């Protein structure tokens, strides 16, 4: 398997894992909710870096949620280390949500 294919496969497995993590206040996964702003996957080293936000800066899980996401991604086969960084710029808006998330919440 070439490096690009391996990277693409690992990236898809990481995205699948992110889709299994749900926002604590909205019944939609964090990926389709648009909370993941940047996803860097290095298939050679297995390192994954995620820049994500929360729906509101005052979210009660702001201290613990990055660790929850890291644990989930670390469980993906091929991942050796995951790092999640919370970012607040740009602020999250519903425009970041996928069409599937909008449909799920009856917003389309």
UniProtKB/TrEMBL annotation:
Residues 11-84 form the MIP18 family-like domain. It comes from the Bacteria. Pfam families: FeS_assembly_P. SUPFAM superfamilies: Fe-S cluster assembly (FSCA) domain-like (SSF117916). Transmembrane segments: none annotated. PANTHER family: FE-S PROTEIN MATURATION AUXILIARY FACTOR YITW. This is Fe-S protein maturation auxiliary factor SufT.
């Amino acid at each position: 398997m070439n490096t690009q294919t391996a990277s693409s496969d690992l990236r898809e497995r990481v995205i699948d894992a992110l889709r299994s993590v749900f926002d604590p206040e909205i019944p939609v996964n964090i990926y389709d909710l648009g909370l993941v702003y940047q996803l860097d996957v290095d298939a050679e080293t297995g390192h994954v870096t995620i820049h994500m936000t929360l729906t509101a800066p005052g979210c009660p899980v702001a201290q613990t949620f990055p660790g929850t996401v890291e644990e989930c991604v670390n469980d993906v086969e091929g991942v050796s280390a995951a790092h999640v960084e919370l970012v607040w710029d740009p602020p999250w808006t519903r425009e970041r949500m996928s069409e599937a998330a909008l449909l799920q919440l009856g917003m389309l």
